[in-house]
Amino acid sequence: ISLHGLEFPRKPIFSLRVSYSVISAASYTDSSDDETSPRDKQQKNSKGSSDFCVKNIKQAEFGRREIEIAEQEMPALMALRKRAQGEKPLAGAKIVGCTHITAQTAVLMETLGALGAQCRWAACNIYSTLNEVAAALAESGFPVFAWKGESEDDFWWCIDRCVNVEGWQPNMILDDGGDLTHWIYKKYPNMFKKIKGIVEESVTGVHRLYQLSKAGKLCVPAMNVNDSVTKQKFDNLYCCRESILDGLKRTTDMMFGGKQVVVCGYGEVGKGCCAALKAMGSIVYVTEIDPICALQACMDGFRLVKLNEVIRQVDIVITCTGNKNVVTREHLDRMKNSCIVCNMGHSNTEIDVASLRTPELTWERVRSQVDHVIWPDGKRIVLLAEGRLLNLSCSTVPTFVLSITATTQALALIELYNAPEGRYKQDVYLLPKKMDEYVASLHLPTFDAHLTELTDEQAKYLGLNKNGPFKPNYYRCLAPTPPLKTGKPG
Amino acid sequence: ISLHGLEFPRKPIFSLRVSYSVISAASYTDSSDDETSPRDKQQKNSKGSSDFCVKNIKQAEFGRREIEIAEQEMPALMALRKRAQGEKPLAGAKIVGCTHITAQTAVLMETLGALGAQCRWAACNIYSTLNEVAAALAESGFPVFAWKGESEDDFWWCIDRCVNVEGWQPNMILDDGGDLTHWIYKKYPNMFKKIKGIVEESVTGVHRLYQLSKAGKLCVPAMNVNDSVTKQKFDNLYCCRESILDGLKRTTDMMFGGKQVVVCGYGEVGKGCCAALKAMGSIVYVTEIDPICALQACMDGFRLVKLNEVIRQVDIVITCTGNKNVVTREHLDRMKNSCIVCNMGHSNTEIDVASLRTPELTWERVRSQVDHVIWPDGKRIVLLAEGRLLNLSCSTVPTFVLSITATTQALALIELYNAPEGRYKQDVYLLPKKMDEYVASLHLPTFDAHLTELTDEQAKYLGLNKNGPFKPNYYRCLAPTPPLKTGKPG
Amino acid sequence: ISLHGLEFPRKPIFSLRVSYSVISAASYTDSSDDETSPRDKQQKNSKGSSDFCVKNIKQAEFGRREIEIAEQEMPALMALRKRAQGEKPLAGAKIVGCTHITAQTAVLMETLGALGAQCRWAACNIYSTLNEVAAALAESGFPVFAWKGESEDDFWWCIDRCVNVEGWQPNMILDDGGDLTHWIYKKYPNMFKKIKGIVEESVTGVHRLYQLSKAGKLCVPAMNVNDSVTKQKFDNLYCCRESILDGLKRTTDMMFGGKQVVVCGYGEVGKGCCAALKAMGSIVYVTEIDPICALQACMDGFRLVKLNEVIRQVDIVITCTGNKNVVTREHLDRMKNSCIVCNMGHSNTEIDVASLRTPELTWERVRSQVDHVIWPDGKRIVLLAEGRLLNLSCSTVPTFVLSITATTQALALIELYNAPEGRYKQDVYLLPKKMDEYVASLHLPTFDAHLTELTDEQAKYLGLNKNGPFKPNYYRCLAPTPPLKTGKPG
Amino acid sequence: ISLHGLEFPRKPIFSLRVSYSVISAASYTDSSDDETSPRDKQQKNSKGSSDFCVKNIKQAEFGRREIEIAEQEMPALMALRKRAQGEKPLAGAKIVGCTHITAQTAVLMETLGALGAQCRWAACNIYSTLNEVAAALAESGFPVFAWKGESEDDFWWCIDRCVNVEGWQPNMILDDGGDLTHWIYKKYPNMFKKIKGIVEESVTGVHRLYQLSKAGKLCVPAMNVNDSVTKQKFDNLYCCRESILDGLKRTTDMMFGGKQVVVCGYGEVGKGCCAALKAMGSIVYVTEIDPICALQACMDGFRLVKLNEVIRQVDIVITCTGNKNVVTREHLDRMKNSCIVCNMGHSNTEIDVASLRTPELTWERVRSQVDHVIWPDGKRIVLLAEGRLLNLSCSTVPTFVLSITATTQALALIELYNAPEGRYKQDVYLLPKKMDEYVASLHLPTFDAHLTELTDEQAKYLGLNKNGPFKPNYYRCLAPTPPLKTGKPG
Predict the structure, then answer these.
(1) What Gene Ontology biological process does one annotation of this record name (chains A, B, C, D) (predicted)?
(2) What is the chain C residue with the closest CA to D394?
(3) Which one of D238, D437, D483 has the shortest CB-CB distance to A292?
(4) Looking at the partner chain, which of A255, A260, A337 has a beta carbon nearest the beta carbon of B400?
C-alpha cells in the first residue's frame, strides 16, 4: 500500500465535510429491504444503457425531484450553464470524479455536462450516497458507480469502474479525499500523461498532494480548492455561526440565554460560534494560544481565559482549535453536572473521548448522537457526536454553502483544462484570486446584491483592472497548511 | 352544550402552548402495536393500586428516567420541595389537574405532592400524553387518567374519573384550556362550594374565566398565570428568539445570512424573532399597526414597511401579530419562488391558508411539517406547519421555559390555597407581583446569578420593602386581554 | 415658603432633564461683556413691542437660525402646524410656560402660536436660557422673560412678569419643575378658577402634583407627560444607549473594546447602557435588586453579580438604579487604578461622592467634567461630572428626543384645553394612550416608516378601533412613581 | 528637489494618522501670546543643556503630567522597560526620529532610552507638536527640535538639527511620512553607510520606500510597520468601530437609531463602521466593488446596493473605500435635505468636495469641522471635516491604539538593530510574525487576558514552536500596497 514511498491508508478516507447521517435524513425511500448487492444486479436505464451501478434505477424519479429542488438554491451553477450555451469551456474534457453523491453533486455533474464535459463518477464515502440521486444520474446517462453502504471492496471496485474503461481515458480528476488520485497513482500511473490536472477539495486530500509535491512526485498540476477565500469563509465563519446553534438545539433542546459557554479557539470557526452564542444571550469565554487572535477576542467582547479557570462553572464546552486533546479527562472530571461537551473543530481529536472509556464511567445513549457519561457520584456529562464534528453529525450543511464549493470546483476544472501550456507546473495551486472573486459574484444575485463598478478613472487611480482581481493573489483571511503557490488568472 | 348561557365548544380545546408533535418526539417506546384501549385493561402498579388508567404501566421505568432528567433542569421546583420539608403549604389540598402530561408536568405533580397535596390528573389534549411518564406517575401512586391518542369520549371520561370519586372531593383546580373547569361547571356545580380557587394557564382558558366573571357566573377566585411577567417574557421574547431559528432550520435547513425577512408584528414575539434573525445576518423588515411599537422597531434598526411593499422581494415571511388574515392570498400570489411562510403568532389564523386550497394550486408534502404549494407557473411557496405555530410544531420548548410556567402554577396554587378569607373574591386575578418576583428569583441560581440586597437605608429611600415587591402590581410589559385585577401578596 | 402645609424649596428647582452646560455649548455669541442687567435695559423689537425681557434683542437673527435648524429635526411639531391651518385647536388658549428656553422650546412655542394660543414664557432654570433664541422669540412677538445667568430674584421676577399682566390671564400652564405652578398657588391662587389644566414634564414637578393631589389640594386637572410611554422609551432606553458612549468618549477618549464594565441597575437606562457597551466589545456585568429584571439581564447575556464581586477588576462603573449610595467609599477604595466612575441614573445620589472629600484624597481636575481622585498610594479614580448625570453633563440630548417631549407637551395642552366638562377631575393624569400613540405616529415619517392599517374585519376580530388606541391605557413599560390615573382619549 | 530621479514633494507631508486638531485639544497652556520664534530663543534645561529647540522649556511640568497619564495606558512599553532592566537591546543605538510629538511619542522615546538608545527627534508635522510634551522631553535631556506652528523652513531646519550634529551620527531611523529619510537621502547620503535600518509607519512613507526599492535605490533594510496585522486591525477595524460614532456625535449630536446610512466600502474600516451603526439601531446599506467583500456584507446582514439606488433616501453617507470620487457632485445633488456626508477612508479624495465650490452653492460653517452646503432651493448637506478623515479631524485616537503602534515601532527598531548580518537585505520588510504576535501579547494584560500555552505534545502535533509564530509570515487580513517581503524572526 505504499506508493512511491508515501504511505496511504488502505481504508477509504471518510471525508469530513459532509456527514452521512445528515444526508441520509432525506433518503426517504431507503427502507427497501432489497439486500442484493448492486454489483450482482442487471439494470438498464430507459435509454438502454447499463454503464452504471446504483442501488435501484427505478428510484430515479425521486432523485430527480431532489435535484430539481437543489437547483433552485444553486443559482451560480445554473448561471454557468446559461453562459455556456454559446461556448463549451469543457468541450473535450473527460472528468473522473469521486465525491459524495448528493443532489448538490448531481447539479454540479449536470453542469459539467452542460459545459461540454464527459463525466464518470464514484462515491468518496461508503455511506454518503443518496441512492435516489445516483439513480437519477444514471437514468440521465451519467456513468455513476455508487450506493449507500458499500463495502471497502465495493468502494475501490466502483472507483476502478470509473477509470478502467475501454476507449475512454480521463483527462481531468475531481477528487474529495484523495482516494481516486491514489488509485490512479497506484494502478494506472501512465494515465497521468493525458491528465491535465487534479482538483481536490478536502483538507486530507490537499495535504497528500502537498506531500507528493514536496517529494517531487506530483506529475500534474493540482488545484487546492479547499483554501479559496470564499469557500473558507462559508465553510467556517458563516456556516458555523448558524450550525453551532442548530447542532446544539437538535441534540439537546437547551436554551442558550444566560448559559455560560467556553469556546476553545478563536479562528474563523470559533469567531462564528462566539458571535452566534453571544447574540442568543450566552456568556462566552474564549481560550487561545495565538496572542493576535486572543486580542481580537478581547476586542470582540469575550473574556480570554485558560480552560482550567472556567471549567467548573461553564454549561457548554465547544472546541474549535484544530488541535488535539484540548479537553482532557482532567477537564472532564472537573466539569459540573449536565455540562455539554462538543467539537466544531478538527476531526475527532480535540476532546480526549478515549479517556472516558474507563470502567468507572457509565455511558448512556439518550438520543441519536447524544451520550450521557455518568460519573460514580451521579454527575452526567452530555457528550455530543462522541466528539466528532457537531455541525456535520448533528446539523445539516445548507445547500448555499455546498453551492459555493461546487462552483469553485467547476471553475477550477475550467481553469486547469483551459490554461495555456506552462501556466501551471507540477505543483499545488490555489484558485486564482480572480476566479475566487468570480465564484463570489455568481452568488450575489441570491441576495439581490448589486456590485459597484469602477470607473476608468478610479481603476487607474487604484492601479486595478476594472474586472478584478481586486485583491492580490496572496490576500487571504485564513492560514493554509503548507506553503502555497497561486495560479495566475486566465 | 351551553352552560349558564355561555357556549363552550363540545370538542376538547387543544391548548396551544405545547404541541403533541414535539412531545411525541421523545416518546421512544411507543412503537408498540398494542391496540387494546386502556379503558379495557386491568392494570395495577407495584403497590397494588389500580386507581389510574394509562397505556402500559410497565413503561414506568422509562418514564422515570425522563422525569429524573427533567428534574435536573427544573431547579425552582426542586428548591420548593426542599423548603417544604419543614412546612407543607399544601397540606390538605386536594388538587384536580388537567394539563399536558409530560416529564415536566410530572415534576410539578410530584412537587405538589411533596408540598402536602393530593392530586388527581387528566390530560388536556388527546395527543399530548407521554405514555411512559403517565405510567411512571401511576407507578408512584398518582391517580393519572391519560394516554396518547384518546378519543373525544375517552377525553371526557378521563376528566370525569378525576373528579367523580367516592370519598374524595377536590378543593383546588389546575387547568390548562378550561375543559376541566367547564366539566365541573356542567356536571358537578355543587363541587365549587368546597373549591378554594382555580389556576388557569392558557389564553383560551383565561378568556373563558373573564367571560364567566363578566357574566357574574364565576363562583370562586381564579388566578390567571398566563399573564405573569416572568412567564410572558419567557414564553414570548426569550423562547421565541431561539425557537424561530430552530424551527426554520429543522424544517428547511436554510441559511439565514443575507436573507430578506419580513416579520409582521413587533410585540414581544416579533421582537424576539427580529433580534435573532438580525444577529444571524438576515435583513429584517417589520410591519406594525401600533405607532409606539413601530417607533421601537425603527430605533432597533428595522425598516418599517407595509407588507405589500416588500412582499415580492423577501425570502421569508413570519407572522406574529395575534391578528387574522395578515398574510392573504393576494400576498401569497405575489411572493417570489421558494419564499418561506410561517407563523409564530396566534393559533392558525394569521396566514390565510384556506385561500391556498384551490384547484389551480398543487400541494406537495416534502417533509414533516413542510408543504410546497405550487403555482401553475411552477412557483413554489414553502409553507411551514400549515400556518400553525412554528415554534410548537417544528421546534421544542426548552425545559427551562416549562420550569417557569410550572413554578408559577405551583405558587399560584399555594397563594390561593393559603390566602386568608376575603383576600380574593369571585374574580380573576393576576399572580401578586411579589410571587412573580419569587418565581424569577428561584430561577436565578441556574445562572449563578447573585441578586443585590437593599440596605435598610436604601429601602427606606426608595419606599420599598427589602424583600420586594420591587415594582407595583400593575407593572407589566405586555398587554393582557381584559381588565385585570391583581391579588395582594401574602 | 410653605404652601398649604407643603414645603417647597425656596430656590428654583434646576430640572434634571437638560443641563445648562450642554445647551450653552451652542451659545456662540455670548462672549459679550455687557454686564447691564436685562431688567435695567429698555429694548423694543422691530414691531415696537417691549413686552419682553431678554439679554439683547439684537441677537435675534442668530437665534432665528438656530430655530430654523431645530425645525428641520422636529417634524412632528411642523406637521401639527400644517394640520392646524384649518382648525385652531388652541384658539382662545392663554398659555403661561416655564421651561428651558432653547431652540427646541422655541419651535414648540411657535407651534402653540400657530395652533391659536397666546403664550407668555419664563425660564425654569437660571442658567439654561439661550439668549439668542430668547431674542428671536421676543423679536417675533412672544413675551419672553429670560436670560442666561439670572439671579434667584430675577428668576421669580421673570415668572411673575408672565402671569401678573393687566388684561391677560392664563388658562393653561406648561411647567417643567413646578416652580411656575408653585408661584401661582402662592401668589395668585384665584387664577386657578380660569385655568383648565396643568401640563408638567419633570419628575420633580410631577411628584409635587401627586403630593398636592394626595393632600386634596390640586384644584385643576394636571397631565403628567413625564410618564408617557413614548417619552420614557426615548428619554431612557434609546437616548441612553447612545449617550453612554458619547459621554464616556468626550470625557475620557477611552477605548471600549475589551473593557470590563459593571452597570448597576437593569431598568430601561441600564438596558440601554449595557446594550451599547456590549455592542462595542466591552464585557459587561450587571447588578440588580429585582429578580425579574435580574433574570432579564441573564437572558440578555450579562453576568449578574454583586458589586463587591467585581469591583476590583472592572475598568468602568456606571450607576443607573434610581437609588442612593449604590457606590460607596468602600467600593471606591477597592477599585483598581484608572477605574472610571460615572452616573447615568438618579440625580447625584447614586455615587457617594461626599465620601471622597476627605483630606487623604487629592482631587485633580484634568478636564472639564473630569476629576482624578488620587489615593495616598497613587491610585487614581476617574470621576465624571462629580457623580451628576453623565448624559446631561457630558453629552448632548439629540433634538429628536426633545421633539418627542415637545410634541407630547403640545398634545397634552390640546387634550386638556378641549376636553369636555367632566372628563378630567382635579387629579393627575397620564396622557391618554391614543395621544401617546399619536406622538409616536407623528415621528414615524422621519424614518420613512409606513404603518399598517387594520382592515375592518381585523379591527373587529381584535376588538379595536381602527385608529387606536392599540393598547390599553395602563399598558406601560416602566414603573411610574405614584398611583396614576389615565385620561380617556378625546 | 528630485532625488535620484524620484520626485519628492517639497512641502513636508502631513501624515494622516493623527490630526493636529485633535491633539491640540489637550494643549491647555498654549494661549501664551509669546510670538518669538523658538529658533531665536536661548533656553536651557535644568541640567544646563541647550541641545534642543522647543517653544518654552518652562512648560515641562505640564508635559510631564501628560506623559505620566499616557504611561498608564501604554502598558506594553512599560513592560518593555522592565524587561530591559537587565539587557539593553538598544545599547549603542543612535536613533533619529521624526514623528508627531505627543505624550504617547514621549513614552516611546523614553522607552527607547531605557532600552539603551540615544535619540534625537523632530516633528513630522508642522502643527501636531504638543509644546508642553516637547518641553518635558527637552527637560529630561532629549534633544528635541519641534514646536506647534513651525514654518516650512522651520520644519526642515528642525530635521537638520537632528542629523547634522558634530560627533554623533545616527545608525537607526524612525520615520513617519518619509520626510526625514528623504532629507538624509538628499543631504547626507553617506550617512546610510552606518545606518542599520529604517522603520517607517505611514502609508505614504512606506509607498516611497517601495518606490526606492523598486528603483534599486534603497540602500538599507526598511521595516514597514504600517502593515503589521495587530496595528492594522486596531487602526482600522477596532478603532473605527468606535470613532465613527464618536466623530458623528461630536460634530452633529445626531441620534443613530432608525437612521438610514450608506457605507461605501466593506474593508476593515467599513466593517467597523457598519457594525457600530447597526448596533446603535441604524439601517445600513453597503456598496462594494469586490465580490468577496460584497458577499461578506450580505452575510453580515447588510443590503448591498449601488450608491445611486439609495442616495435619495439615506440620512448619512460614509466613504471608506481608499478610492477617489466615490461621492460625486451628482450624488450630492440628489441627496435629501440634512443628509450628512463624511469620510473615514483615504485622505480627502473620496468625496468630490471641489465640485461643491461653485457659485450657486452657499457654504455656512456652523461649527468647527461642520459645514452646511446650501443648494439654491434651500436644501442643506452637512459636510464634515471638509471631506478629510472624520476620525482624525473630529474624534480622538485612544492611547491604547497608539500604544500598539509605538510598541510595534520599538520592536521593529530592536529587530533591525540586532539582526545578524544578512538577515535583511536592502529591501522593505514586514515585521516578522513572531514579533507581531509579541506586540499583541504585551497588550493582553490590559484585559486581564490569559493566553493558553501549547503542551509539547500539541506543539508537535501542530508542527509549531510553543512560543510561536502561530501563523505563517504571510498570514494577513488586509491587502498591503505593493509586493511585500517578510523578515524572519530573530
Answers:
(1) S-adenosylmethionine cycle
(2) C250
(3) D437
(4) A255
Contacts of C257 in chain A (CB under 8 A): 298-301
Taking the CA of residue B103 and the nearest CA in chain A, the distance in Å comes to 14
Q: Which helix or strand (DSSP H or E) is residue A95 part of?
A: strand A94-99
pLDDT along chain A (490 residues), means of 10: 31 36 38 76 94 96 91 92 88 96 96 97 92 97 96 95 96 95 95 96 88 91 91 88 94 94 96 97 97 96 98 97 95 97 88 97 91 95 94 84 94 96 92 92 95 94 89 49 39
The reply to whether C257 touches chain A by the CB within 8 Å rule is yes
Q: How far apart are CA A198 and CA A194, in angstroms?
A: 12
Cell of B40: 379495557
The DSSP symbol for A15 reads: -
Residue C317 dihedral angles phi and psi, to the nearest 5°: -120, 125
Which residues on C lie below 8 Å from A299 (Cβ)?
A: 257-258, 281
Q: Which residue type occupies A225?
A: V
Q: How far apart are CA B143 and CA B158, in angstroms?
A: 11
Cβ under 8 Å to D: B residues 299-318: 299-303
The answer to whether B266 and B289 have CB atoms below 8 angstroms apart is no
Q: Which residue of D has its CA nearest to B298?
A: D258
Residue for grid cell 506594553: D76
Q: Has A141 been labeled as part of a binding site? A: no
ipTM of the complex model: 0.87
pLDDT digits (tens, 9 = 90+) for B63-106: 998 898 899 889 899 999 998 778 899 999 999 999 999 999 99
Peptide bond into C469 cis (omega under 30): yes
Four-CA torsion C346, C350, C353, C354, nearest 10 degrees: 90
Does D469 sit behind a cis peptide bond, omega within 30 degrees of 0 on the bond before it? yes
- Residues in chain C closer than 8 A to A303 (CB atoms): 283
Please indicate if the annotation marks D113 as binding a ligand: no
3-state SS string over chain B? CEECCEECCCCCCCCCCCCHHHHHCCCCCCCCCCCCCHHHCCCCCCCCCCCCECCCHHHHHHHHHHHHHHHHCCHHHHHHHHHCCCCCCCCCCEEEEEECCCHHHHHHHHHHHHCCCEEEEEECCCCCCCHHHHHHHHHCCCCEECCCCCCHHHHHHHHHHHHCECCECCCEEEECCCHHHHHHHHHCHHHHHCCCEEEECCHHHHHHHHHHHHCCCCCCCEEECCCCHHHHHHHHHHHHHHHHHHHHHHHHCCCCCCCEEEEECCCHHHHHHHHHHHHCCCEEEEECCCHHHHHHHHHCCCEECCHHHHCCCCCEEEECCCCCCCECHHHHHHCCCCCEEEECCCCCCCECHHHHCCCCCEEEEEECCEEEEECCCCCEEEEEHHHCEHHHHCCCCCHHHHHHHHHHHHHHHHHHHHCCCCCCCCCEEECCHHHHHHHHHHHHHHHCCCCCCCCHHHHHHHCCCCCCCCCCCCCCCCCCCCCCEECCCC
Check D325 against A457: CB less than 8 A apart.
Answer: yes
Is B204 one of the annotated binding-site residues? no
- Per-residue b/e over B151-188, b at no fewer than 16 CB within 10 Å? eeebbbbbbbbbbeeeeebbbbbbbbbbbbbbbbbeee
Asked if the C-beta of A298 comes within 8 angstroms of chain C's C-beta atoms, the answer is yes
The answer to whether B372 and B137 are in contact (CB under 8 A) is no
From the list A257, A278, A280, the residue facing C298 with the nearest CB is A257
**Alpha helices (H) in D300-398, listed in sequence order:** 307-310, 329-334, 390-393
In degrees to the nearest 10, what's the CA dihedral of C34, C36, C40, C43?
A: 0
D303: which strand partners? D285
